[in-house]
Amino acid sequence: MKLEIGSYALVSPGYLLLLLLIPLIYYWLHRSRKRYHTQLTLSSLQPVRGIHAWRERLVPVRQVLWITGLACIVLALARPQRSLQEEEVKAEGIDICLVMDLSSSMLAKDFQPDRLEASKAVAIEFVDKRPYDRFGLVVFAGESYTQSPLTLDHRVIQDQLSSLRCGLLDDGTAIGMGLASAVNRLKDSEAKSKVIILLTDGVNNRGYIQPLQAAEIAKQYNIKVYTIGVGTAGEALTPVSRRSDGQYVFGYANVEIDENLLKQIAEETGGQYFRALNETGLRSIYDEIDQLEKTEMDVTVFKRYKDLYRNFAWFGLALLLFEFLLGNTLLKTLP
User: Fold this and answer.
1) Which domains, from first to last, does the chain contain?
2) What are the pLDDT digits (tens) for 201-226?
3) DSSP symbols for 120-140
4) Which of 14, 19, 20, 21 is nearest to 78 (CA)?
5) Is 119:106 a contact under the CB 8 Å cutoff?
6) Is the CB of residue 159 less than 8 Å from the CB of residue 193?
């Protein structure tokens, strides 16, 4: 009966009982040494006490080699294997485009350490949970651009998310431009489901494409848009100006999010609007979207095994051969 231990298995574990014979064989050989070795009786060992030749110090090495070699041979008889688990996946994946606001207000301190860093961390976790979906990344502030086209290489998306920072674009909030860029990335997709997750903390005030116009185009291409407004209720410590050296000056300001607009965009495209007041709420929103947008797939799991007994057998034989050579050369004893 096969014995499985994690990713390893023994086809014939009964042979392991032979390991019990090794100490018995060693004991028997030790007891019978007098038959093969001549003993010399001395009146006193005081003159040579404490003197040990280097050959004498290596005697235990022969014993270790002998015992280890036999143990490897026994393990080889038990036929160890390593299981290689594979998945054959037939998936109808979802194409998802993340649209991230990079306006300076995303540095507000009502999230820890700020809105942008919290949003990046949660988005990275979301990508990690969906291994079979393609992801793209669009960023916007006063203008927008595609940070990464749709790809199955999630490491690229996560690295791109990690590198996002405010100040890369002209400041402002061009929601319509960001949404339009994402639609442009998804419109030719042949995926069964196409989704945009748009995250912002402000009011549309820049761009030549209006948000509702972009939402209408998204609807025409059957693209569902989930909108997320991030920011606490009331006031938050927010960048209010920027010094000549590029450093932001912070002050308390009212949090203004055009929730009506974000709701309209979501309703127009069959998505939903969410409001995140803190990091915990933001993580819950992504979890809810994860549940709403399930990837349908057929997964067949099978195992194949790689035999390891040859490795143990050759290693055991090598140890026994080495022990034999030592016993007949460097560590040879006279009868």
Assistant:
1) 3-31+54-84+303-328 (no CATH), 94-294 (3.40.50.410)
2) 999 999 999 999 999 999 999 999 99
3) HHHHHHHHHH-TTSEEEEEEE
4) 14
5) yes
6) no
